[in-house]
Amino acid sequence: MKKLNVLFMTAGMLAGLAGTAHAQLRVEISGVGSNQIPVAIAAFADEGVAPAQISAIIKADLERSGVFKIIDAGTISDAANVDYSAWKARGADALVVGSVQKLANGTFDVRYKLMDTIKSSKLSQLDQSTTPQFTRLSAHKIADDIYEKLTGVKGAFATRIAYVTQQGRSYRLEVADADGEGVQLALSSNEPIISPSWSPDGTKVAYVSFEQKKPVVYVQNLVTRARTVVANEKGSNSAPTWSPDGQRLAVALSKSGNTQVYIVNADGSGLRRLSQSSGIDTEPQFSADGQSIYFTSDRSGGPQVYRMSVNGGDAQRVTFSGSYNISPRISSDGKTLAYISRRDGGNFQLFVLDLASGQEQRLSDTTSDESPSFSPNGKYILYATESARRKSLAVVSVDGRVKQRLTTQAGNIKEPTWGPFMK
Protein backbone atom coordinates (compact mmCIF):
# COMPACT_ATOMS: atom_id res chain seq x y z
CA MET A 1 0.00 0.00 0.00
CA LYS A 2 1.15 3.54 -0.65
CA LYS A 3 2.00 5.43 2.51
CA LEU A 4 0.67 8.94 1.97
CA ASN A 5 -0.33 11.74 4.28
CA VAL A 6 -1.81 15.24 4.38
CA LEU A 7 0.00 18.35 5.66
CA PHE A 8 -1.06 21.65 7.19
CA MET A 9 1.10 24.71 7.74
CA THR A 10 1.28 28.43 8.37
CA ALA A 11 3.45 30.23 5.86
CA GLY A 12 4.68 32.97 8.16
CA MET A 13 7.16 30.68 9.93
CA LEU A 14 9.05 29.81 6.77
CA ALA A 15 11.09 32.96 6.43
CA GLY A 16 13.98 31.34 8.28
CA LEU A 17 14.25 28.25 6.09
CA ALA A 18 17.75 27.81 4.74
CA GLY A 19 18.65 27.83 1.08
CA THR A 20 16.61 27.96 -2.09
CA ALA A 21 15.71 25.10 -4.35
CA HIS A 22 17.09 24.50 -7.80
CA ALA A 23 13.95 25.33 -9.76
CA GLN A 24 10.67 27.17 -9.50
CA LEU A 25 7.48 25.35 -10.31
CA ARG A 26 5.74 26.15 -13.59
CA VAL A 27 1.94 26.35 -13.47
CA GLU A 28 -0.26 25.41 -16.43
CA ILE A 29 -4.01 26.06 -16.19
CA SER A 30 -6.86 24.40 -18.06
CA GLY A 31 -10.60 24.75 -17.64
CA VAL A 32 -12.66 27.46 -15.97
CA GLY A 33 -15.41 27.53 -13.42
CA SER A 34 -19.05 28.12 -14.24
CA ASN A 35 -20.42 31.65 -13.98
CA GLN A 36 -17.08 33.46 -13.86
CA ILE A 37 -17.08 36.83 -12.09
CA PRO A 38 -15.76 39.63 -14.35
CA VAL A 39 -13.23 41.78 -12.47
CA ALA A 40 -11.27 44.74 -13.85
CA ILE A 41 -7.77 44.99 -12.34
CA ALA A 42 -5.74 48.16 -12.78
CA ALA A 43 -1.98 48.34 -12.62
CA PHE A 44 -1.08 49.70 -9.20
CA ALA A 45 0.27 53.25 -9.23
CA ASP A 46 4.09 53.31 -8.85
CA GLU A 47 4.25 49.53 -8.36
CA GLY A 48 7.53 49.50 -10.31
CA VAL A 49 9.37 50.60 -7.15
CA ALA A 50 8.66 47.21 -5.53
CA PRO A 51 10.59 44.00 -6.32
CA ALA A 52 7.37 42.27 -7.37
CA GLN A 53 4.59 43.59 -9.61
CA ILE A 54 1.60 43.50 -7.28
CA SER A 55 -1.18 43.74 -9.88
CA ALA A 56 0.31 40.96 -12.05
CA ILE A 57 0.42 38.57 -9.08
CA ILE A 58 -3.20 39.40 -8.18
CA LYS A 59 -4.30 38.77 -11.77
CA ALA A 60 -2.44 35.45 -11.91
CA ASP A 61 -3.93 34.31 -8.60
CA LEU A 62 -7.50 35.10 -9.63
CA GLU A 63 -7.06 33.58 -13.10
CA ARG A 64 -5.60 30.41 -11.60
CA SER A 65 -8.69 29.95 -9.45
CA GLY A 66 -10.91 29.63 -12.50
CA VAL A 67 -13.55 31.71 -10.71
CA PHE A 68 -12.82 35.09 -12.31
CA LYS A 69 -12.71 36.64 -15.77
CA ILE A 70 -10.00 39.32 -15.71
CA ILE A 71 -10.48 42.63 -17.52
CA ASP A 72 -7.35 44.76 -17.99
CA ALA A 73 -7.99 48.24 -16.60
CA GLY A 74 -4.72 49.99 -17.43
CA THR A 75 -3.41 52.24 -14.62
CA ILE A 76 -5.74 54.05 -12.23
CA SER A 77 -4.85 55.87 -9.04
CA ASP A 78 -6.59 54.38 -6.03
CA ALA A 79 -7.54 57.93 -5.00
CA ALA A 80 -9.24 58.76 -8.28
CA ASN A 81 -12.96 59.14 -8.63
CA VAL A 82 -14.27 55.94 -10.17
CA ASP A 83 -16.75 56.08 -13.06
CA TYR A 84 -18.81 53.08 -12.01
CA SER A 85 -21.14 53.19 -14.99
CA ALA A 86 -18.24 53.13 -17.45
CA TRP A 87 -16.73 50.01 -15.88
CA LYS A 88 -20.15 48.39 -15.63
CA ALA A 89 -20.59 49.07 -19.36
CA ARG A 90 -17.31 47.26 -20.00
CA GLY A 91 -18.76 44.20 -18.29
CA ALA A 92 -16.91 44.47 -14.97
CA ASP A 93 -18.80 43.58 -11.79
CA ALA A 94 -15.89 44.84 -9.70
CA LEU A 95 -12.82 47.05 -10.08
CA VAL A 96 -9.46 46.69 -8.29
CA VAL A 97 -7.20 49.72 -7.90
CA GLY A 98 -4.12 50.31 -5.78
CA SER A 99 -0.76 51.94 -5.25
CA VAL A 100 2.72 51.17 -3.92
CA GLN A 101 4.92 53.63 -2.06
CA LYS A 102 8.51 53.02 -0.97
CA LEU A 103 9.14 54.42 2.49
CA ALA A 104 12.35 55.88 3.91
CA ASN A 105 13.06 52.76 6.01
CA GLY A 106 13.06 50.54 2.93
CA THR A 107 9.60 49.07 3.47
CA PHE A 108 6.67 49.44 1.09
CA ASP A 109 3.20 50.76 1.71
CA VAL A 110 0.80 48.71 -0.42
CA ARG A 111 -2.76 50.03 -0.67
CA TYR A 112 -5.72 48.57 -2.47
CA LYS A 113 -9.46 49.13 -2.94
CA LEU A 114 -12.14 46.83 -4.30
CA MET A 115 -15.02 48.68 -5.91
CA ASP A 116 -18.48 47.24 -6.66
CA THR A 117 -19.53 48.61 -10.06
CA ILE A 118 -23.07 47.22 -9.74
CA LYS A 119 -23.83 49.00 -6.45
CA SER A 120 -21.43 51.92 -7.13
CA SER A 121 -19.75 51.46 -3.78
CA LYS A 122 -16.50 50.39 -2.12
CA LEU A 123 -16.48 46.72 -1.09
CA SER A 124 -13.14 46.56 0.69
CA GLN A 125 -9.73 48.10 1.18
CA LEU A 126 -6.38 47.12 2.69
CA ASP A 127 -3.30 49.11 3.66
CA GLN A 128 -0.24 46.92 4.23
CA SER A 129 3.30 47.81 5.24
CA THR A 130 5.69 45.16 3.96
CA THR A 131 9.39 44.44 3.63
CA PRO A 132 10.84 43.72 0.16
CA GLN A 133 10.89 39.95 0.72
CA PHE A 134 7.17 39.86 1.48
CA THR A 135 5.81 42.00 -1.37
CA ARG A 136 4.55 38.86 -3.13
CA LEU A 137 2.77 37.86 0.07
CA SER A 138 1.06 41.27 0.15
CA ALA A 139 -0.26 40.64 -3.35
CA HIS A 140 -1.51 37.18 -2.39
CA LYS A 141 -3.31 38.68 0.63
CA ILE A 142 -5.06 41.18 -1.62
CA ALA A 143 -6.10 38.38 -3.97
CA ASP A 144 -7.43 36.47 -0.95
CA ASP A 145 -9.48 39.50 0.08
CA ILE A 146 -10.93 39.89 -3.42
CA TYR A 147 -11.77 36.18 -3.58
CA GLU A 148 -13.53 36.27 -0.21
CA LYS A 149 -15.46 39.50 -0.81
CA LEU A 150 -16.75 38.33 -4.20
CA THR A 151 -17.42 34.65 -3.45
CA GLY A 152 -18.03 34.52 0.30
CA VAL A 153 -15.28 31.88 0.62
CA LYS A 154 -11.91 32.57 2.22
CA GLY A 155 -9.10 32.76 -0.34
CA ALA A 156 -6.05 30.48 -0.16
CA PHE A 157 -3.54 32.32 -2.36
CA ALA A 158 -1.37 33.38 0.61
CA THR A 159 -0.95 29.80 1.79
CA ARG A 160 1.95 27.51 0.94
CA ILE A 161 2.44 24.01 -0.37
CA ALA A 162 5.12 21.45 0.45
CA TYR A 163 6.41 18.47 -1.47
CA VAL A 164 9.40 16.17 -1.89
CA THR A 165 11.69 16.41 -4.90
CA GLN A 166 13.98 13.60 -5.94
CA GLN A 167 17.03 13.72 -8.19
CA GLY A 168 18.90 10.44 -8.17
CA ARG A 169 19.66 9.69 -4.50
CA SER A 170 19.05 13.27 -3.39
CA TYR A 171 15.76 13.99 -1.60
CA ARG A 172 14.58 17.47 -0.66
CA LEU A 173 11.55 18.56 1.32
CA GLU A 174 10.65 21.92 -0.19
CA VAL A 175 8.00 24.55 0.45
CA ALA A 176 6.63 27.15 -1.95
CA ASP A 177 3.89 29.71 -2.36
CA ALA A 178 0.60 28.25 -3.58
CA ASP A 179 1.48 29.55 -7.06
CA GLY A 180 4.79 27.64 -7.09
CA GLU A 181 6.98 30.70 -6.51
CA GLY A 182 9.31 31.36 -3.57
CA VAL A 183 10.65 27.81 -3.28
CA GLN A 184 12.66 27.17 -0.11
CA LEU A 185 14.44 24.13 1.29
CA ALA A 186 13.20 22.63 4.56
CA LEU A 187 15.18 19.37 4.64
CA SER A 188 17.63 17.48 2.44
CA SER A 189 18.78 13.88 2.70
CA ASN A 190 20.47 11.10 0.77
CA GLU A 191 17.74 8.74 1.99
CA PRO A 192 14.01 8.94 1.16
CA ILE A 193 11.73 11.48 2.85
CA ILE A 194 8.01 10.71 2.77
CA SER A 195 4.67 11.68 4.33
CA PRO A 196 5.36 15.29 5.43
CA SER A 197 2.70 16.72 7.74
CA TRP A 198 2.67 20.23 9.18
CA SER A 199 1.46 21.06 12.66
CA PRO A 200 -1.71 23.16 12.61
CA ASP A 201 0.20 26.28 13.69
CA GLY A 202 2.94 25.74 11.09
CA THR A 203 5.84 25.80 13.54
CA LYS A 204 6.70 22.10 13.19
CA VAL A 205 6.65 19.44 10.54
CA ALA A 206 6.34 15.68 10.99
CA TYR A 207 7.76 13.38 8.36
CA VAL A 208 9.20 9.92 7.78
CA SER A 209 12.94 9.69 7.11
CA PHE A 210 14.92 6.60 6.12
CA GLU A 211 18.25 8.02 7.30
CA GLN A 212 18.54 5.21 9.88
CA LYS A 213 18.04 2.68 7.05
CA LYS A 214 14.44 2.16 8.22
CA PRO A 215 11.35 4.39 8.32
CA VAL A 216 11.34 6.58 11.46
CA VAL A 217 8.85 9.37 12.30
CA TYR A 218 10.36 12.72 13.27
CA VAL A 219 8.92 16.07 14.33
CA GLN A 220 11.12 19.03 13.42
CA ASN A 221 10.83 22.58 14.73
CA LEU A 222 11.23 24.88 11.72
CA VAL A 223 12.53 27.79 13.76
CA THR A 224 15.10 26.10 16.01
CA ARG A 225 15.78 23.11 13.71
CA ALA A 226 15.49 20.83 16.76
CA ARG A 227 14.22 17.35 15.93
CA THR A 228 12.29 14.87 18.05
CA VAL A 229 11.94 11.18 17.28
CA VAL A 230 8.22 10.50 17.66
CA ALA A 231 8.16 6.86 16.58
CA ASN A 232 11.13 4.51 16.19
CA GLU A 233 9.58 1.18 17.09
CA LYS A 234 10.48 -2.24 15.75
CA GLY A 235 9.49 -2.55 12.09
CA SER A 236 7.93 0.26 10.07
CA ASN A 237 7.01 3.68 11.46
CA SER A 238 4.99 5.67 8.96
CA ALA A 239 2.17 8.03 7.92
CA PRO A 240 2.20 10.73 10.66
CA THR A 241 -0.71 13.14 10.77
CA TRP A 242 -1.47 15.87 13.32
CA SER A 243 -4.56 16.22 15.47
CA PRO A 244 -6.41 19.52 14.93
CA ASP A 245 -5.16 20.85 18.29
CA GLY A 246 -1.54 20.01 17.47
CA GLN A 247 -1.06 18.00 20.66
CA ARG A 248 -0.96 14.49 19.18
CA LEU A 249 -0.16 12.56 16.04
CA ALA A 250 -1.68 9.45 14.55
CA VAL A 251 0.90 7.08 13.07
CA ALA A 252 0.97 3.65 11.44
CA LEU A 253 3.32 1.15 13.14
CA SER A 254 4.11 -2.52 12.51
CA LYS A 255 5.70 -3.11 15.95
CA SER A 256 3.27 -5.93 16.77
CA GLY A 257 3.14 -7.59 13.35
CA ASN A 258 0.69 -6.16 10.81
CA THR A 259 0.66 -2.37 10.53
CA GLN A 260 -1.89 -0.76 12.87
CA VAL A 261 -2.95 2.79 13.79
CA TYR A 262 -1.51 4.35 16.96
CA ILE A 263 -1.84 7.70 18.74
CA VAL A 264 1.25 9.41 20.20
CA ASN A 265 1.91 12.75 21.85
CA ALA A 266 3.81 15.29 19.77
CA ASP A 267 6.88 14.84 22.00
CA GLY A 268 6.94 11.08 21.38
CA SER A 269 5.39 10.08 24.72
CA GLY A 270 2.15 8.28 25.46
CA LEU A 271 2.10 5.83 22.55
CA ARG A 272 -1.26 4.05 22.42
CA ARG A 273 -2.61 1.51 19.94
CA LEU A 274 -5.90 2.51 18.36
CA SER A 275 -6.91 -0.11 15.78
CA GLN A 276 -7.12 -3.79 16.65
CA SER A 277 -7.67 -5.63 13.36
CA SER A 278 -5.95 -8.75 12.04
CA GLY A 279 -5.34 -6.97 8.72
CA ILE A 280 -3.29 -3.92 7.73
CA ASP A 281 -4.52 -0.54 9.05
CA THR A 282 -2.58 2.48 7.80
CA GLU A 283 -2.74 6.09 6.51
CA PRO A 284 -4.61 7.57 9.51
CA GLN A 285 -6.25 10.98 9.14
CA PHE A 286 -7.96 12.97 11.89
CA SER A 287 -11.48 14.19 11.20
CA ALA A 288 -12.02 17.95 11.11
CA ASP A 289 -13.33 17.96 14.69
CA GLY A 290 -10.60 15.62 15.97
CA GLN A 291 -13.14 13.09 17.28
CA SER A 292 -12.62 10.41 14.62
CA ILE A 293 -9.83 8.79 12.64
CA TYR A 294 -10.20 7.88 8.98
CA PHE A 295 -7.77 5.22 7.79
CA THR A 296 -7.08 2.63 5.09
CA SER A 297 -7.61 -1.04 5.96
CA ASP A 298 -7.71 -4.34 4.06
CA ARG A 299 -9.84 -6.03 6.75
CA SER A 300 -12.61 -6.63 4.21
CA GLY A 301 -10.27 -8.07 1.58
CA GLY A 302 -9.04 -5.19 -0.57
CA PRO A 303 -8.06 -1.81 0.88
CA GLN A 304 -10.96 0.50 1.77
CA VAL A 305 -11.44 3.64 3.87
CA TYR A 306 -12.82 3.21 7.40
CA ARG A 307 -13.66 5.55 10.27
CA MET A 308 -13.34 4.91 13.99
CA SER A 309 -13.50 6.93 17.21
CA VAL A 310 -10.30 8.64 18.30
CA ASN A 311 -10.66 6.52 21.43
CA GLY A 312 -10.73 3.27 19.46
CA GLY A 313 -13.52 0.73 19.22
CA ASP A 314 -15.47 -0.52 16.22
CA ALA A 315 -14.69 0.87 12.78
CA GLN A 316 -17.27 1.70 10.11
CA ARG A 317 -16.51 1.24 6.42
CA VAL A 318 -16.82 4.51 4.45
CA THR A 319 -15.99 3.61 0.81
CA PHE A 320 -17.93 0.95 -1.06
CA SER A 321 -17.51 1.75 -4.77
CA GLY A 322 -14.55 -0.04 -6.31
CA SER A 323 -12.36 -2.72 -4.80
CA TYR A 324 -9.28 -0.55 -3.99
CA ASN A 325 -9.57 2.83 -2.19
CA ILE A 326 -6.65 4.38 -0.27
CA SER A 327 -5.21 7.65 1.09
CA PRO A 328 -8.24 9.28 2.76
CA ARG A 329 -8.20 13.04 3.23
CA ILE A 330 -10.95 15.12 4.82
CA SER A 331 -11.98 18.65 3.85
CA SER A 332 -11.78 21.33 6.54
CA ASP A 333 -15.56 21.38 6.94
CA GLY A 334 -15.64 17.60 7.40
CA LYS A 335 -18.15 17.11 4.57
CA THR A 336 -16.00 15.72 1.76
CA LEU A 337 -13.65 12.75 1.61
CA ALA A 338 -10.90 12.69 -1.03
CA TYR A 339 -9.10 9.44 -1.81
CA ILE A 340 -7.25 7.52 -4.49
CA SER A 341 -9.17 4.71 -6.16
CA ARG A 342 -7.91 2.03 -8.52
CA ARG A 343 -10.39 1.67 -11.36
CA ASP A 344 -10.56 1.01 -15.10
CA GLY A 345 -7.90 -1.63 -15.55
CA GLY A 346 -5.53 -0.52 -12.82
CA ASN A 347 -5.57 3.29 -13.08
CA PHE A 348 -5.05 5.16 -9.79
CA GLN A 349 -7.30 8.23 -9.89
CA LEU A 350 -8.49 10.97 -7.55
CA PHE A 351 -12.08 10.70 -6.29
CA VAL A 352 -14.20 12.65 -3.82
CA LEU A 353 -17.16 11.41 -1.79
CA ASP A 354 -19.91 13.57 -0.32
CA LEU A 355 -20.22 11.97 3.10
CA ALA A 356 -23.83 13.08 3.59
CA SER A 357 -25.29 11.99 0.25
CA GLY A 358 -22.86 9.21 -0.60
CA GLN A 359 -22.36 10.72 -4.07
CA GLU A 360 -18.96 9.94 -5.58
CA GLN A 361 -17.13 11.87 -8.30
CA ARG A 362 -13.88 11.26 -10.18
CA LEU A 363 -11.86 14.49 -10.40
CA SER A 364 -8.75 13.53 -12.36
CA ASP A 365 -8.18 12.33 -15.90
CA THR A 366 -4.66 11.12 -15.08
CA THR A 367 -3.85 7.50 -14.28
CA SER A 368 -1.16 7.41 -11.58
CA ASP A 369 -2.46 9.72 -8.86
CA GLU A 370 -1.41 9.75 -5.20
CA SER A 371 -1.14 11.94 -2.08
CA PRO A 372 -4.29 14.13 -2.24
CA SER A 373 -4.41 17.25 -0.05
CA PHE A 374 -7.25 19.77 0.31
CA SER A 375 -6.66 23.50 0.14
CA PRO A 376 -7.54 25.04 3.53
CA ASN A 377 -10.74 26.55 2.08
CA GLY A 378 -11.79 23.13 0.77
CA LYS A 379 -12.21 24.33 -2.82
CA TYR A 380 -9.20 22.65 -4.44
CA ILE A 381 -7.21 19.44 -4.09
CA LEU A 382 -3.45 19.15 -4.63
CA TYR A 383 -2.11 15.74 -5.60
CA ALA A 384 0.84 13.98 -7.24
CA THR A 385 0.57 12.26 -10.58
CA GLU A 386 2.77 10.94 -13.36
CA SER A 387 3.16 11.94 -17.00
CA ALA A 388 5.77 10.70 -19.48
CA ARG A 389 7.40 8.72 -16.64
CA ARG A 390 7.97 11.86 -14.57
CA LYS A 391 6.17 12.68 -11.36
CA SER A 392 4.59 16.12 -11.12
CA LEU A 393 1.96 17.93 -9.08
CA ALA A 394 -1.58 18.80 -10.07
CA VAL A 395 -4.43 20.85 -8.62
CA VAL A 396 -8.11 20.36 -9.37
CA SER A 397 -11.17 22.21 -8.12
CA VAL A 398 -13.57 20.07 -6.09
CA ASP A 399 -16.15 20.34 -8.88
CA GLY A 400 -13.57 19.05 -11.37
CA ARG A 401 -13.84 22.06 -13.69
CA VAL A 402 -10.50 23.78 -13.11
CA LYS A 403 -7.21 21.90 -13.46
CA GLN A 404 -3.60 22.98 -12.97
CA ARG A 405 -0.33 21.17 -13.51
CA LEU A 406 2.80 22.16 -11.56
CA THR A 407 6.03 20.94 -13.11
CA THR A 408 9.76 21.46 -12.73
CA GLN A 409 12.69 20.60 -14.96
CA ALA A 410 14.61 19.24 -11.97
CA GLY A 411 13.75 15.65 -11.04
CA ASN A 412 10.48 14.17 -9.79
CA ILE A 413 8.01 15.89 -7.46
CA LYS A 414 5.83 13.88 -5.10
CA GLU A 415 4.30 13.73 -1.59
CA PRO A 416 2.55 17.12 -1.93
CA THR A 417 0.54 18.73 0.82
CA TRP A 418 -1.24 22.06 1.13
CA GLY A 419 -0.65 24.28 4.15
CA PRO A 420 -3.20 25.97 6.43
CA PHE A 421 -4.36 29.56 6.40
CA MET A 422 -1.68 31.98 7.57
CA LYS A 423 -1.88 33.42 11.06
Automatic annotation (TrEMBL):
Keywords: Cell cycle, Cell division, Periplasm, Signal. GO terms for biological process: cell division; protein import. InterPro entries: 6-blade_b-propeller_TolB-like, Tol-Pal_TolB, TolB_N, WD40. Residues 1-23 form the signal peptide. It comes from the Bacteria. Transmembrane segments: none annotated. Residues 25-122 form the TolB N-terminal domain. It holds the Pfam family TolB_N. GO terms for cellular component: periplasmic space. HAMAP family: TolB. Part of the Tol-Pal system, which plays a role in outer membrane invagination during cell division and is important for maintaining outer membrane integrity. This is Tol-Pal system protein TolB. It comes from Pseudoduganella violacea. The gene is tolB.
